[in-house]
Known about the structure:
Elements: H1 2-24, H2 31-55, H3 61-71, H4 83-90, H5 92-106, H6 115-138, H7 166-197, H8 200-228, H9 234-277, H10 283-294, E1 300-304, E2 310-311, E3 327-334, E4 337-345, H11 352-429, H12 436-456, H13 459-464, H14 466-476, E5 481-486, H15 493-513, E6 520-526, E7 530-537, H16 552-563, E8 567-572, E9 578-585
Parallel strand pairs: 5-6
Antiparallel strand pairs: 1-2, 1-4, 3-4, 6-7, 7-9, 8-9
Helix pairs in contact: 1-2, 2-3, 2-9, 3-5, 5-6, 6-7, 7-8, 8-9, 9-10, 9-11, 10-11, 11-12, 11-15, 11-16, 14-15, 15-16
Amino acid sequence: xxxxxxxxxxxxxxxxxxxxxxxxxxxxxxxxxxxxxxxxxxxxxxxxxxxxxxxxxxxxxxxxxxxxxxxxxxxxxxxxxxxxxxxxxxxxxxxxxxxxxxxxxxxxxxxxxxxxxxxxxxxxxxxxxxxxxxxxxxxxxxxxxxxxxxxxxxxxxxxxxxxxxxxxxxxxxxxxxxxxxxxxxxxxxxxxxxxxxxxxxxxxxxxxxxxxxxxxxxxxxxxxxxxxxxxxxxxxxxxxxxxxxxxxxxxxxxxxxxxxxxxxxxxxxxxxxxxxxxxxxxxxxxxxxxxxxxxxxxxxxxxxxxxxxxxxxxxxxxxxxxxxxxxxxxxxxxxxxxxxxxxxxxxxxxxxxxxxxxxxxxxxxxxxxxxxxxxxxxxxxxxxxxxxxxxxxxxxxxxxxxxxxxxxxxxxxxxxxxxxxxxxxxxxxxxxxxxxxxxxxxxxxxxxxxxxxxxxxxxxxxxxxxxxxxxxxxxxxxxxxxxxxxxxxxxxxxxxxxxxxxxxxxxxxxxxxxxxxxxxxxxxxxxxxxxxxxxxxxxxxxxxxxxxxxxxxxxxxxxxxxxxxxxxxxxxxxxxxxxxxxxxxxxxxxxxxxxxxxxxxxxxxxxxxxxx
Length: 612
């Protein structure tokens, strides 16, 4: 955004000014290092704050980093040779310290949540900064108190001197050093207390960002304490001075490291729970999966009802937690809607990366469950539709067979009988007219009609069942065929017809393509849950991967078996024959019956046969 670029540009300009002004000062002991330090005091926290703000736009810690960076701009004036500007720049010493303490005490939320943190910061402001301000007003000679901010020679005069009082100035400096030592140690104690009392999410963040802050606080306390007691150890003081420089400049980079570590941790958590979610866990299992890495044993997932309330996986209402409970609700949005929410510890809000990862996985799992339910429902509807089609087709074939048998066939039989009677009368009258050719044509038509009717739905299948019907077909097969069966009883008409026509199609194909010496076996077997059928031949076979093209007959076999929820398999290889096997479940079926059984009387063809 434009204002982010504006902030970054201002920070870079301020850093460049700090380098130029400090390098131009000829009275500083370490102008080069001070130039880098003063530029880093501005640019470092501002840029880390911008990154923090981009990654966590709702957090206050990013704006606080930016504000602290620009507050350190005043530190540049300490490099000015002008007395007034130099004296004003000295005021930046307690400001820099207060800014660092503020960042440490408010990390990672950007807020002073509890009273110990507030007491330490207010005390550092009143007891620490006030003596330093008074020192500038009464000290005739000013010496920067920063670790490497000393002058190589005389420092500029005090441009803010009100009344010179060297003794009071010395006492005020000692008070300032003592307060800095005390409040650095107090801040250390608060950080330790926060680590000890924090929940797992906050402890995880503090454990990453706190070590550098602890190093800075310990180094500052020791350095100021040794200055207070005026220890005579120049080498030790030099080491501590440079250590303090490094520690001070590392504070915001420690916060940056904590943010990056949180993102990496969230990535690992996301990878882990995505991998675990592939086994399609229930909502309760998903909650258990999220609780451990997020460090919240009471975490719950909730789903929005139409009235806006939240419910759990058992459709029980989950009330919104009160503000003082320490628990909050984070809604997981998708396409402008929030169908899912996470009820969690409020300190998890400090790690939105984890919440986003958890919310994404929870939402995907919920949507996957919905899609799977819809898919299963669609499959069930499709299977029921196919089954209804098969049932309707079988009933229509039985109806046509019955109509042909009881209607057209009986009418032809009556015509034949009447023609026979008429022929006898003509013979008795001595008329030389032969009706025999017409009678033969009618008998042929009756034979063809009977064949068509039996092909639509063979009466023997309705009357005697699968085994007898297939045995009858096997006896009429042009190729030798045998039928065996194990515990096969009567079943619903659609089940029997599906298996019958599949076996008939396989038998016809084997006799047609198996070769002159092919032998065919048909085996039926019934278990408690399904009927199995196998049609095998020892004929020429074919390469199922290359030569086989599924024709309408084989497709009809697949459709018939599949419509009843069964499976069909065709295996073959050259010169090793072909085997067609299938299974059909014996279950309730959408034909109106509670269970499979023999066809009802309404389904069987009625009327007298042509032979009668």
